[in-house]
Design goal:
The chain is α+β, with helices and mostly antiparallel strands. The chain has helices at 3-9, 11-22, 29-39, 47-66, 92-101, 149-153, 184-191, 227-230, 232-245, 256-263, 296-311, 313-328, 333-348, 351-361; strands spanning 77-82, 85-90, 104-114, 122-128, 131-137, 157-168, 174-183, 199-206, 213-222.
């Protein structure tokens, strides 16, 4: 029986698998029941699909656990279906609990600003008690600020504001305060980045530089039943808090793991056509992997790794660092390619890693 099927066998067996595979020790039955329910939503037909689903789910759970988000937070953990995988996703409250376990109290102030209040609503920066603090200035011409999917679509709001006030949990002393804002266009862009987004999308064949290509096209129809429709307010809050947290990572390295866990499902797969020139056959040793001429089996390996990285960006970052360390330590680049070609190809498909990894393997590719 595959690991993925073992996870669905019973709550007791599910928890046993988590302990055995990724070292999570818990007896939280409600968490197991919720996980099993989500896992059974996938209709997997092959052994490879079961393996990929198990790897993605377990890797995501391990990332949450390392960030201090535990099974007992099950009421604030969602399991998001993405293709033929399930990705665990922490809500804002789960992150705040993890931060509290690290000794920090985080108070968030989030304001959705209607179009009429754009100019008069903002966080004003002032200097008080030798520190910079942010005071909310709010014109409040429009008092109705309930966040709905329809209002996002119709651009009822102009922007969203967020202030994070971080204190030492024991002493109550303020550690840091930060504020940021997102325009409605930025928020909509984020909301359209996955199949759980606010608008329906479809894949169409369009002309490309090197022949027809598939392109994801976003429609203007609301994507009924998705996270951004069912929990619009929660997703808006999560999105802008993530942006605000980028400003405190360096100030509070102790929160780096909870922040990473909170951000782990925030990976948008690239959809752009490759800018590389057409493949030219390059002779290589028979047992060497050619990054420009994969076999069908190697292509399947790359596709599997790409899917895993899309669901778990922490794993992608860890693998990129591992490849960098090997090359910088003097490992033969071709040998690294031979063993890590699937990861290299998958990382090269992301703008975030293309230049970073490409610079290491370019001469051999």
């Amino acid at each position: 029986m595959s690991v993925y099927k073992q996870l669905q066998a019973s709550p007791t067996e599910c928890l046993s698998v988590l302990k055995r595979e990724i070292g999570i020790k818990t007896d939280c039955i409600p968490f197991a029941v919720k996980l099993i329910s989500a896992a059974k939503e996938l209709n997997l037909a092959t052994e490879q699909e079961n393996l990929t689903a198990a790897n993605t789910l377990l890797s995501g759970l391990q990332t949450l656990s390392q960030g201090g988000i535990i099974p007992e937070d099950y009421d604030k953990i969602d399991f998001v279906k993405r293709g033929k995988t399930i990705v665990p996703s922490a809500r804002v409250e789960a992150f705040l609990r993890a931060a509290a376990r690290k000794g920090y109290t985080i108070l968030d102030t989030i304001v959705a600003v209607p179009q009429e209040d754009t100019d008069g609503t903002y966080f004003k920066e002032v200097f008080a008690n030798d520190n910079i603090v942010y005071i909310l200035e709010d014109s409040r011409k429009n008092m109705d600020r309930a966040i709905t999917a329809e209002r996002l679509k119709d651009k009822y709001f102009s922007k969203f504001l967020c202030r994070l006030d971080i204190h030492d949990a024991k002493s109550g002393r303020r550690i840091a305060m930060t504020a940021c804002e997102m325009s409605i266009d930025d928020m909509l862009q984020v909301s359209m980045s996955s199949e759980q987004g606010i608008f329906k999308s479809e894949w169409r064949k369009v002309p490309g530089k090197y022949g027809p290509k598939n392109e994801k096209v976003i429609t203007d129809e609301l994507n009924s039943g998705t996270f951004w429709i069912k929990w619009t307010g929660e997703m808006v809050n999560k999105t802008i808090i993530r942006r605000a947290l980028k400003r405190v990572k360096e100030v509070l390295p102790e929160l780096s793991e909870p922040i990473y866990a909170f951000e782990q499902d925030d990976y948008t797969p690239p959809v752009e056509e490759s800018k590389q020139a057409p493949v030219i056959d390059i002779p290589v040793k028979a047992d060497n992997v050619n990054l420009k001429a994969f076999t069908d089996e190697q292509k399947a390996d790359c596709k599997e790794m790409y899917d895993i990285f899309c669901q778990n960006p922490k794993l992608a970052e860890d693998k990129a660092k591992e490849i960098e360390d090997m090359v910088q330590a003097g490992a033969d680049v071709q040998e690294v390619i031979n063993t890590e070609y699937a990861s290299i190809a998958a990382l090269m498909m992301s703008k975030r890693y293309a230049e970073r990894i490409g610079g290491l393997v370019n001469e051999k590719s």
